[in-house]
Amino acid sequence: MTQTIIVADDHPLFRAALKQAVSQAVPDAETVEVDSIKALQAAVESHPDADLVLLDLNMPGAHGFSGLVFMRGQYPGLPVVVVSGSEELQVMRRSIDYGASGFIPKSAPLPTITEAIQAVLEGDVWLPKGVADKIEQMHSDMTDFSEKLASLTPQQFRVLGMLAEGLLNKQIAYDLDVSEATIKAHITAVFRKLGVRNRTQAVIAIQQMEIDPSDQSLSGS
């Protein structure tokens, strides 16, 4: 049976590199490329038997770890491997805490990426050499907010992301092609699930998912 692997990254050159690694790891695999969280959701819905997602942490529609947390909540049976430009141990630790099956630095050579893909498809958790021992000694800062975020429906997650971008209800309704009343209902549900009372609190909450709120230099990773 042909395996399906979804490559989610908004950089075309790196998607091409990941696709090459996939073809070496699983020569007959079907590779699906997406460049945003919205496209990733659509890809998973159209490929319900997908075997693996290779996920860039920062893509349109995601705030740091929020895309990973959302994917693990909505599709718990689908392994997700984080692929990131950040090589901070804390980022790797949080990725595993939030449910990733592995972490591949973007600086890794092609044979290493291939090895990682093969390991995860065989059911292992893959981390760069020597990292597992180091992060086991680190304090976990996983919060119950990740569980709340994972409870959002796909549409609620999209609405939350647009709120975080500062869009008004009217703009969100236009972009999602629904009524403003529908958006208000979604926002009410989002506030209830996240345990917040207003937009400001919702935006502050989603910022918990940022890789490093104090260092925006990682925003392109």
Automatic annotation (TrEMBL):
<dbReference type="Pfam" id="PF00072">
    <property type="entry name" value="Response_reg"/>
</dbReference>
<keyword id="KW-0238">DNA-binding</keyword>
<dbReference type="GO" id="GO:0006355">
    <property type="term" value="P:regulation of DNA-templated transcription"/>
</dbReference>
<dbReference type="InterPro" id="IPR051015">
    <property type="entry name" value="EvgA-like"/>
</dbReference>
<dbReference type="InterPro" id="IPR000792">
    <property type="entry name" value="Tscrpt_reg_LuxR_C"/>
</dbReference>
<dbReference type="Pfam" id="PF00196">
    <property type="entry name" value="GerE"/>
</dbReference>
<feature type="domain" description="Response regulatory">
    <location>
        <begin position="4"/>
        <end position="121"/>
    </location>
</feature>
<dbReference type="InterPro" id="IPR011006">
    <property type="entry name" value="CheY-like_superfamily"/>
</dbReference>
<dbReference type="GO" id="GO:0000160">
    <property type="term" value="P:phosphorelay signal transduction system"/>
</dbReference>
<dbReference type="InterPro" id="IPR058245">
    <property type="entry name" value="NreC/VraR/RcsB-like_REC"/>
</dbReference>
<feature type="modified residue" description="4-aspartylphosphate">
    <location>
        <position position="56"/>
    </location>
</feature>
<dbReference type="GO" id="GO:0003677">
    <property type="term" value="F:DNA binding"/>
</dbReference>
<dbReference type="InterPro" id="IPR016032">
    <property type="entry name" value="Sig_transdc_resp-reg_C-effctor"/>
</dbReference>
<protein>
    <submittedName>
        <fullName>LuxR family two component transcriptional regulator</fullName>
    </submittedName>
</protein>
<keyword id="KW-0597">Phosphoprotein</keyword>
<dbReference type="InterPro" id="IPR001789">
    <property type="entry name" value="Sig_transdc_resp-reg_receiver"/>
</dbReference>
<feature type="domain" description="HTH luxR-type">
    <location>
        <begin position="145"/>
        <end position="210"/>
    </location>
</feature>
